[in-house]
Amino acid sequence: MELVDRDGLTEREFLEQYRAGDYERPSMAADMVIFTVTNTEADNYRKLPEKELRILLIRRGGHPFLGKWALPGGFIRPDENADQAAARELSEETGVDDVYLEQLHTFTDVGRDPRTWVMSCSYMALIDSSRFQLKAGDDAEDAAWFKVSYRHLREQKELLDEGYVKTLTYELKLSAEGEELTAVINRTVTAKPTSKSVVYAIMSNDGLAFDHGKIIASAIERLRYQTNETDIALHLMPKLFTLTELQQVYEVILDKELLKAAFRRKVANLVSETDHYTENGGHRPPRLYRRNWEQA
Amino acid sequence: MELVDRDGLTEREFLEQYRAGDYERPSMAADMVIFTVTNTEADNYRKLPEKELRILLIRRGGHPFLGKWALPGGFIRPDENADQAAARELSEETGVDDVYLEQLHTFTDVGRDPRTWVMSCSYMALIDSSRFQLKAGDDAEDAAWFKVSYRHLREQKELLDEGYVKTLTYELKLSAEGEELTAVINRTVTAKPTSKSVVYAIMSNDGLAFDHGKIIASAIERLRYQTNETDIALHLMPKLFTLTELQQVYEVILDKELLKAAFRRKVANLVSETDHYTENGGHRPPRLYRRNWEQA
DNA sequence: TCAAAAGTGTTAGGAATACACCCATGG
DNA sequence: CCATGGGTGTATTCCTAACACTTTTGA
């Protein structure tokens, strides 16, 4: 027995006659914060290179925000979902497929794009830097990998009658050759007896397009959180790596020094030792490790 | 000095002449999993009522999925963001404002709505059941609060050459007066050397519309996670409550019995004692607590 | 008096923290 | 030999799981 609606139509008949209304619809973009970790060269015998956390930005060649830097991304097409759109954009920008991708948050504020109604479904991606060439801008467009610094500046908490308002202020600094972008971002938590909300606000912004400062901030917070709680940071490592390299990656993500012994115990279950070593010269050669798939 | 683009336009001039292209755009809905906790009546002297976790569903009155049950929600309007749309829908459905709302995930699979291209930005909401009338369907539409059961059925893990595939199978049961909906949902984690992805799939589904089984499953997982890690469950409590009631709420969310002493220590910082007590009859009267705003 | 629930103390084990120490290398 | 980094052991602190126990009430 087939159900019919109040017009006497079956579902099949309904779908055949269905025409989408012409009310206004938003454009949906998938924008990505692509993280990688690179080495600084600083090899004067007995000094190891340091690590830097970097993200890919693209200089806008047209209005709006002409000349400002924006996250890579693009509109989702009708024949793909958001994950596929993100993977496609990532492949187009960097030439790399099969990458760790995680959906973060969907940004929908009115007026976030001055042209028209555009929402952004944001993603973070993690790539081992050995998988691509650092010069991403092989076509005309101007792309660069910016070193990331995201630091807590101050905290302000106000107790209300019932509830509180807590504002954390962060400074986001992005730097590449000759370019230095700075933004100050507030993360405000408002708690009341029945509700609780978290709002990001851009207090100042020098050089970033749209609301991408918010997206980058939330991506960094997510990356830090996941690094502490999961094995996600291993996606930034090549097949074989030393534990000191892994620790440096953790440190540059978390912007915090870690104790060696404790770190090694923490990641012990995430990696397996191999029989290979590197020669670094001047020190005891470190053992190489790989990911361990048995656990978790 | 004003920047001009390759057509010689300033940003202001560009925006004035800008016309949105007529490529296809998706509709964007905000759909909500609204949780509350209710008491069963079972007061035969010396027995306290038990708690049940419930969500609001609405029976579809038209195609597609005529007669099936769907999450409350609606399309986002051009003059509001997704949070505001969710709050507006929530107020329309339940009459309650100022509620805990959290954005979850944006579902974008092709074909998830058979009519047209529709994405869903999903939210979870937590309401103390004393704040609304249980009969939400005061207008024509058919709404009901369904008791939630979400149980782990089995786990399957396959080790690959490099990586693994882990599938967790869950049974989602929703029950209201005379209605019993069941869905089986797989959560598959695929880990490879360079990537990792989590995919939800509906294996069977009896009575739920669209992909709402996935949305409900991810909301329950988020609620459980947040209950363990934060004070979020307090949004389900009235102003004054006993610690046993709070523990019952935790237990019904987590589907797990907790030890009293450990629970009390865990929530000690989240609540403050008051000088009020309830009389339950037959037992020692429990002290009433309220939220503590000093902490966290 | 007693069943049912409120509420507290005590112990054991595991994880993170902090520090101290030894090992290996090549210039 | 020694600076530099690789690598390990141990004591301390903290959190939580587990269990045992006491208190209070109204029929």
Question: Which class best fits the helix and strand makeup of chain A?
Answer: alpha+beta
Strand content of chain A: 35-45%
Number of domains of chain A: 1
Distance between the ends of chain A: 48 Å
| Helix count from the secondary structure assignment of chain A | 5
Q: What is the radius of gyration of chain A computed over CA atoms, rounded to a whole number of angstroms?
A: 23 Å
Oligomerization category of the chains in this entry? homodimer
Major sheet attributes of chain A: 10 strands, mixed
Number of strands of chain A: 13
**Percent range of helical residues of chain A:** 10-25%
Q: Average pLDDT of chain A, to the nearest integer?
A: 92
CATH topology of chain A: Nucleoside Triphosphate Pyrophosphohydrolase
Shape of chain A: globular
CATH uppermost class of chain A: Alpha Beta
CATH architecture of chain A: Alpha-Beta Complex
Keywords (chains A, B): Hydrolase
Protein name (chains A, B): ADP-ribose pyrophosphatase
Organism (chains A, B): Paenibacillus helianthi
Family (chains A, B): Belongs to the Nudix hydrolase family.
